[in-house]
Structures are given as C-alpha cells and as structure tokens.
Amino acid sequence: MTDAKRGNVSQERYLFTSESVSEGHPDKVCDRISDAILDAYLTADPASRVAVETMTTTNLIVIAGEVRGPDSVTPDNLEQIARAAVRDIGYEQDGFHWQQAKFCCHVHSQSVDIAQGVDAAGNKDEGAGDQGIMFGYACRETDALMPAAIYYSHAILRSLAEARHSGSEPGLGPDAKSQVTLEYVDGKPVRAKSVVVSTQHAADLDQDQVKAIVRPHVENTLPDGWMCDEDEFYVNPTGRFVIGGPDGDAGLTGRKIIVDTYGGAAPHGGGAFSGKDPTKVDRSAAYAARYLAKNVVAADLADRCTIQLSYAIGVSHPLSVYVDTDGTGKVAEKKIEDILRRSMDLSPRGIREHLALSRPIYARTAAYGHFGREPEPDGGFSWEKADLVDELRRAAA
Fold it and tell me: Could you report the per-residue pLDDT of 200-217, keeping only the tens digit for each?
C-alpha cells in the first residue's frame, strides 16, 4: 500500500492501538451462539446452508435467520445449543442466566432465490452466497504473522478467561475488554505505550484488588520490557464493573468485525463471519485471503501483504484478486497475484474444499480472533496453515 493508504506507517515514531473483547462480551455471546448453531447443522449435514443471527439482552436470547438443513435439527435443539453456549461462557447471573433466560426462535428456510444462485446445476458451478469484498493480511510483527496490537489484546483476555474458567480467579466475570497502544520506531513495535483492561468482577472486590488480579496477565503476555508506565496502565477506569454481559448492554452477532480480524491494522470488507456457512464468501473468502497473505509472508516474498478478493452473488469465480506488499515485496505484486491464482482455486467451491470448511469448526472462532491462531488437528483454523510456502518459493524463483 502507499503511505496515504496506511496512514502513519511511514513515520519514524508513531502509536497504534487495537482492542479486543472477551467471550462474555454481549456481542461475542451472540457470535458464539450463532456459530454453535452453524456447527450443529454442519455436524448433521456438511452441505447445510446457515445464516443465523443472535440478539441478547437482559435474560433474553433471540435467534433469527434462514437455513437449509436436516429436519433433525429442531427448534428445541437450537434452544439447547444456545443455552449450552451461554453456560460454557459462564453466565449464571440474575440478569443473564443460561437456564432462566427466555428463548425465542425465528429461524426459517433459506430463500429459493438465494439457493438457486449458490447451488451447482448443470454446467454451472457453485456460486458465491453474496456479493462483496474480502481482505486478508499478514505481517512480521509477531510469530503468528499478525499485527502486534490486536495479537496482544487477544492474548491478555485469553489469559484472564483461562484463569476464570480454571477457578484460580473466581472474582472475575465473563465480560471484559482490552486495548493495547503500541509505540512503533521505524515501522516496528517496541513497547506498550498504554494498556486498558476493563473486566467484570464480583461486587466485593475493590478496584485495587481487580488491578492486582489483572496485572500479571498483562505483564506475562507482553514481551519482556514492553510493559507500559504505571500511569498508562488503566484497569476498570469507570471505577466499577459488576453488571456486565447482555444484562449491561444488548448484544448482536457480527458487531465486532475489527476485533475478529486485524484490529484496524488492515482493511476490512465490511462483512461479518459468525453464523454463516462457508458458501458465504464474507467468511470463506476472508479466510482464503488471510491464508494466502500469511503464506506470502511466510515464504519471504514480502514482509507485509494485503490481499483483496471480490465476488458477485451466484458467480463461481472471483471478480478480482489484488495484492499489495506495501513496498516490502521481494517479488513484483503482479507476479504474486499470478502465482496465487495458480496455487489455489478461489471459487467458492475451491476455497471450501481447499481449506476443508464444511466441518463443525466454527464455535471456537467466535472469540479472541479468527486469525493468528494455531491450526488444529481436526481442521480448525485450517486457514492458518503455512503449507503453500515451498510452492510459492519455487514459483517465485
């Protein structure tokens, strides 16, 4: 990208900030329920089509959307799935309880107009489930080839959640947010300028106690020497955070798309991921773009790589493939584009099959980011594999 596109990345010294939210944040509760429902349909039939949204507020869970899947997944099953997700997150509070919350289901059959565009028929291959633009990004700021600010924001909250789930910190509640501001020198992060953590807590804890609980989870997450000055370390700056989760603020599926991706360090096409099966290119093509960008950087073809893909509903091939290495490329960007087109079939079917996306692997993506995670033995986070590296290097030679 040009300096104008990336803003202040060309400056010798600058600050950049990203935020994350925990699995108990109201919007993330909704993402988790929607993706757990998706997993249930894909378990019953890998060809299921799902687009399910969730809304939560004080002791209320509402799901809506359209599906095409087996009748064995009933509204009663969907209610059980939603309640199990809330229980697993840890909500047993008066204002939001996995057992006591009212549940409403407004899920109906997929539109036949959408289905005819997506389905393969005759000589027509499977088409994209919607139009849109999707971005992928990778850089050398962390071992995961992710921007550092979002990577450490996620890691702080994962550490707090692990302590809460293990029982070692029973005073913590499920709802939390983090924000990390990093100082950059010559384009590289060198330290945290400030850290903000807001976490739900038991009513009998004062803020000094909460800060003492949070501190080691920040200090042990950041690299050595990166901890911010004490007057830039903010924990529960409002002074109290007892009422949290959907009881404190309504939640909606798909409202944390920057948290889900690159923390604002790269463009986002605008489409959310959770609750959507892999025929929806909002999700699958964003995964493919990250996969390709990560492999480009891992293959040492560039130190930073942004990839954009675009699609039209019902059309079985991308309308465009765009690569930008922000001046860090060792190979011409047009050549990288050509190599990537040969290395992966970027049709909706090609992406789904290459990354094996028609599996129940999505509930785990609903918190702490869809990218920068470790590939898992059952196929989870398959888009984080760096298995094209040798092929890309040979093609670029």
Answer: 999 999 999 999 999 999
